Amino acid sequence: MEKKYVLAINPGSTSTKVSIFEGEKLLKTFKIDHRKEDLEKYEKVVDQYDYRLNLIKNWLEMENIPTNSLIAVVGRGGLLRSMPGGTYSVTDAMIEDLKVGIQGEHASNLGGILAKGLADLEGIPAYIVDPVAVDEFHEIARISGLKEVPRKSLVHALNIKAVCHRRAKELNKEIEDLNLVVAHLGGGISIAAVEFGRIIDVNNAKEMGPFSPDRAGTLPVGDLVKLCYSGKYTINEMKTMLQGEGGLFSYLGTMDGREVEERINKGDKYAELIYDAMAYQIGKEIGAYAPVLYGKIDNIILTGGLSYSNYLVDRIKEMINFISEVIVYPGEDEMEALNKGAQRVINGEEVVKIYEDEVKING
Asked: What keywords does the record list, in alphabetical order (predicted)?
């Protein structure tokens, strides 16, 4: 059978998304939902490998897509060691780091493992693309102000890099020709300075930057320390307050921007204040990244789910239009981004990277 398809795999905490592409054309996509009781059987995320692999095989069989029709399999990158962006071949060393969760345990760690498992059935390449562990910081960006706490690069790299490639293509340029500030606006908010294709600085969306639908963002440090030592909360309760019950949820009891806008349309002034404050913090953070690129910015890009909100986008634009032209790419198509990363390698537009060559692995 002719080999012509790319299978993309994106494991999440309660589902596994799968898509089949022919070139850049999406042919089929499906979300495999996992029951809580099925996942509870497994102590660690990596233990779910066989369970999820068999479900993907069943889906391929149901769709009459034999594995010998695949030219490559690409999976969502997990919490690997700090690494430059790009499309990576899934190697044994990468698999080992994904299994142990070198920077933490997360469902996305299964992406490369599942891709390799399926690819090895047919002796075809397995890839990952721009994982959250992408780290292209200049050394100066790592300095925080407290020696024991360096700044880290944990970033929505897959979507940020994808929209940079998209903008470059629209301008008939290469990603290496452009300086961009990209704001990924979703459940977490990453605002990145992208210098000639490299993310040289970004807020850690889990801990810093603007507050988001469920994350607190940067807080007054003194008051935060007092709260931590107040005796009112355990460490796990504090972590939940900062990521999970912070941001919009802390003020309004919802993480849904659409619900907030409905409240605003009904005259809720407090909801308006909080939503405007989030836009204000986003605009301020974007402005903070303009000097990182010395003001030489080709475009500012707004992307992610929240950029569907005209209300939010308009308020952000009012603050930042003077810096550069603002481009809006609403949403986040992770499956398309995974496929495009694989296609760039398949088509010879990009050289595949080897994990061991790009990171420091201590014996």
From this structure: ATP-binding, Cytoplasm, Kinase, Nucleotide-binding, Transferase
